[in-house]
Amino acid sequence: MLRSRREGDSVTDALRPMTKQRLYEQVLERLRQYVAEGGLRAGDRLPPERDLAQRLGVSRASVKQAIVVLEVQGLVEARHGGGTYLVRDSLDTEPVDRMVERRRRLPDVLEAREALETKLAELAAERRTEEDVAAMRSALAHMSEEIAAGGHGVEGDRLFHAAVTAAAHSSLLAEFMRSIAEQIAESRTESLRQPGRPSRSLSQHQAILDAIAAQQPRQAAAAMRRHVRTVAKVRLLDWEPEEEA
Hints:
Layout: H1 23-38, H2 49-56, H3 60-72, E1 76-79, E2 83-86, H4 96-127, H5 130-148, H6 154-168, H7 171-179, H8 181-192, H9 197-213, H10 217-231, H11 235-238
Keywords: Coiled coil, DNA-binding, Transcription, Transcription regulation
Coiled coil: 106-133
GO molecular function, one term: DNA binding
């Protein structure tokens, strides 16, 4: 006889009810195969939703749900009245369940970032050294180079925020930042893959740096707050996961 871990438990985690793969997740896998086998590249257009639905034998709603997931992940761009185009050379999608979990925790991460990083920017403006300012400038130069090469500027972004944290010269706040580093990295990637976001983030970073270099605490804090609130504007938070089986 099967027994639960503790007396009174109904089932173990291993024996939780089985779930069926959502139909639009199957559509995602077919689209991934289609792009790979067809040798499609960034800039190429996917077939219209109506054609995809007919060829796959599913409803247009299922195709539309799949396209929305691809948009949220920054893999395609849907142009109004103009079709859906690849942003990358492949459709290597993140599992939907992982997206759902990330969507659940992202608001808390962004809230913590605003509270911590706004204060760090304020302190950095009060305490920064010339070496700190040089580190921030170097980070922005790195980010600019990444963007110019067609990237999102993720590493330059990381270096810049790390330099601001260091410039605050607060060991306890720095420890708090290290404790949520993984979640911050997740929010960074999510933000920077939004269309047009890398260049916007770069200019916002410059505004933060200018205030810190000029030793203007209030302006630095305000610039950082504006930046983190921009980071919070991502498609993932507007996405409503479908529970279709």
